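Weekly structure sync, notes
Attendees: PL, DS, HV (note-taker this week)

Item 1: Type II secretion system protein
DS walked through the input record. Source organism listed as Desulforamulus reducens. Sequence as pasted into the shared doc:
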Amino acid sequence: MQTILGFLIGITFTIVILFQPIETYSLQVRHQSAEKIVNKYLTRIKLDGYLTTVDENKMINEFANIGCPIENKDTDIIVNARESRGDTRILRNTDPTAGEVFLTVKCKLDPKPAVPNAPETLMVGGTDYSERPDP
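Item 1 (cont.): predicted structure, written out as tokens:
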């Protein structure tokens, strides 16, 4: 009886010890994938001067494919120039603040991490300077 109980406690402890790093690794992989997507579209914004509607829809689909859906594109995608809002392009400028473009995306983790105290959302972003000359 004691050997069975000891065996069950040992197995439970081993599973818990192994589960934490696997779940943490999964969360880190999704975070790195989200950063790659944001950097890809930040480069597009840098060249185009704003986030185009086509790129916006592609980005939403790419986030959904990695298990981080964007719930509301109007509030979860923070960008200073967006074609769908009718914003003007941000052009290359000698003033660093006038030519700055930024993109921040907040997405929900789906499925939620099973690790205690793990975040339910990811927020990734970056800034750069526009290279778009006058259109």
